[in-house]
Amino acid sequence: MNHFQYKGNELFAEDVSLKEIVARVGSPVYVYSHATLTRHFKAFDEAFAGAPHTICYSVKANSTQSVLKTFINLGGGVDIVSGGELYRALKAGADPKKVVYSGVGKKDDEIEYALNTGILMFNVESEQELTRISEIASRMGKTAGIAIRVNPDVDPGTHPYITTGLKNAKFGITIDRAMEEYVRAKSLPGIDVIGIDMHIGSQLTKVNPFVDSIEKLKVMIGKLRSQGIDLQYFDCGGGLGIQYNAEEPPLPADYGKEIVAATKDLGMHLVFEPGRNLVGNAGILVAKTLYTKARDEKNFIMIDAGMNDLARPALYDSYHGVQAVTRDQDGMIVADIVGPICESGDFLVKGREVPMFKQGDLVAFLSAGAYGFAMSSSYNSRPRVAEVMVKGDKFEVVRERETVEDLIKGEKVASFL
Ligand SMILES: Cc1ncc(COP(=O)(O)O)c(C=O)c1O
Ligand SMILES: N[C@@H](CCCC[NH3+])C(=O)O
């Protein structure tokens, strides 16, 4: 069930009118549905009911406290890529024993923080990082659980910027080097070799690349076992795609069935790092039409959200569905929907048929829950937008909107400058 639906001519999030949210909170605003977040988490979890597993939500997709708390309360762990994400996850109540730490550029202080926290494992992405973690853990008298992120050299068939599992990508240790690194890891002080990890890309719309990568890693796991290195955790990463437009990604249940079948003989504990799949279609961005202008063949709709608020179209030319919050436009028009940023790449929609928005009309951008607010910035010194969590017929402002009015009054200035 879609929780962003029209009731009459008004668009609602669950049982709350978006018009009412904007009237109270202002625009632009990200709006999340608690029921959708919950449903997505449960669907993913149920897909692996047949296997021991932990869902470590990938914090980078949406690191808002209330989103993190929703998944943590459902039993989820987290996948982090920085000390900042670890801090946020712990603040939201994450169990350190369900934290996995990925990323090619872990810094000393971040490694120390994770060791002091007692996280489950570091997903090691280079030979030097392995040495560094060993040195730091030994100095601290701690033991670091590690998995090697193996780069399987499989094409995930997605946008090049979010392809991570091809061997020319910066991620992980190539499959031909990983064997020796496991053997070396086993001999290093302060290191407990407990797992193997992969993450081949984001917004995948087919299961095959996941299964092909798993098959490659299985060969390695077999060889490691024959050398007395027995791994407990198989971290399959994230990457399962969602429908933005016409994509037809597999349902979590279908993805689960194939992965469980591919891994069941291993007897390992599975870890998953889904981000987008859990939050993408659980959030929308609502903005207001400021002006419109027509020029020869081209129509522009200027809104109060820009590439700093939702960077995906500018970065990846990505598609976000558009809906009128109140359906009272006089038909449709082919237009660019653009923001106030001083760059021509500042568009949310390019040359698409959209409702004929007029000044003051509210525009909803769909599928904005993942990599939306999380990738926003204050470029052009634009204050950051609000975030709202809807639960049934209630909503909570989970992040206050920064406003120029506050700055003028002398409030919240320090965090802005
Ligand atoms: C290591 C790692 N894990 C998990 C994710 C989450 O990916 P997605 O949002 O596509 O599920 C990413 C981002 O692609 C990642 O880099
Ligand atoms: N930021 C990307 C996804 C990045 C995946 C992170 N590993 C997007 O919006 O599609």
TrEMBL record:
Q: Residues in the active site?
A: C342 (proton donor)
Documented EC number(s): 4.1.1.20
Q: Entry's InterPro entries? A: Ala_racemase/Decarboxylase_C (IPR009006), DAP_deCOOHase_LysA (IPR002986), De-COase2_C (IPR022643), De-COase2_N (IPR022644), Orn/DAP/Arg_de-COase (IPR000183), PLP-binding_barrel (IPR029066)
Q: Which residues form the Orn/DAP/Arg decarboxylase 2 N-terminal domain?
A: 35-279
In the record, N6-(pyridoxal phosphate)lysine modifications are located at K60
Q: Which CDD domains match?
A: PLPDE_III_DapDC (cd06828)
Annotated pathway: Amino-acid biosynthesis; L-lysine biosynthesis via DAP pathway; L-lysine from DL-2,6-diaminopimelate: step 1/1
Q: Which domain of life is it from?
A: Bacteria
Binding positions for substrate?
R276, R312, Y316, E343, Y371
GO biological process terms on file: lysine biosynthetic process via diaminopimelate
Per UniProt, pyridoxal 5'-phosphate binds at: G239, E273, P274, G275, R276, Y371
Q: Which GO terms describe its molecular function?
A: diaminopimelate decarboxylase activity; pyridoxal phosphate binding
Q: How does it assemble?
A: Homodimer.
Record function comment: Specifically catalyzes the decarboxylation of meso-diaminopimelate (meso-DAP) to L-lysine.
Note the HAMAP family from the entry: LysA
Q: Of which family is this protein a member?
A: Belongs to the Orn/Lys/Arg decarboxylase class-II family. LysA subfamily.
User: What name goes with this protein?
Assistant: Diaminopimelate decarboxylase
